[in-house]
Amino acid sequence: MKKIYIGADHGGFELKEAIKAYLEELEYDIEDFGTDSLESVDYPEYGKKVGEAVVANQDSLGIVVCGSGIGISIAANKVTGVRCALCNSIELATLSREHNDANVIAMGGRTAFMDDPLDIVQAFLDTEFLGKDRYIKRKEMLDCGC
Ligand code: RB5
């Protein structure tokens, strides 16, 4: 089973805790980078930590949560090798894995979801990259910044 790194700011704390409890119940191997309360913190720190961990462990995936999901997804995507997708539906989570080989999912703890957030996470974890030649080429373009 893949290692899962998870992190959030205060705006994503409650959803991060719910996702963590769900995945722990299913016996996923989780490492939580915080934050650990509703006290205000800076999302770039948590996006970076999760992104760096995912890149350091090629067979892992990451989950990042802030209020909107936007700031922490931008932060994670600043780490070379991270392909972070902000998803509010099972459809987007599935496509992010199939077409983009997204290695981090971002979610907005204070936003509306089209599906249950736990089902969105599960779809992200269950779906594999399709690995078609054109998808591999585009992924390489993303990873080299060209
Ligand atoms: C924090 O108030 C909020 O700005 C943050 O969680 C996030 O929504 C930023 O993109």
Provide an overview of this structure.
- With 146 residues, this protein is an alpha/beta fold.
- It has a single domain, classed as Sugar-phosphate isomerase, RpiB/LacA/LacB (Ribose 5-phosphate Isomerase B, Chain: A).
- The protein is built from six helices and five strands; from the N terminus they run βαβαβαβαβαα.
- It has helices at residues 13-25, 43-56, 70-77, 90-98, 117-126, 133-144; strands spanning 3-8, 29-32, 60-66, 84-86, 104-108.
- Strands 2-1-3-5-4 form a five-stranded parallel β-sheet, with helices on both faces.
- Helix 4 links the parallel strand 4 and strand 5.
- Helix 2 (43-56) packs across helix 3 (70-77) and helix 4 runs parallel beside helix 5 (117-126).
- The N and C termini lie far apart (32 Å).
- The model has no long low-confidence stretch (mean pLDDT 97).
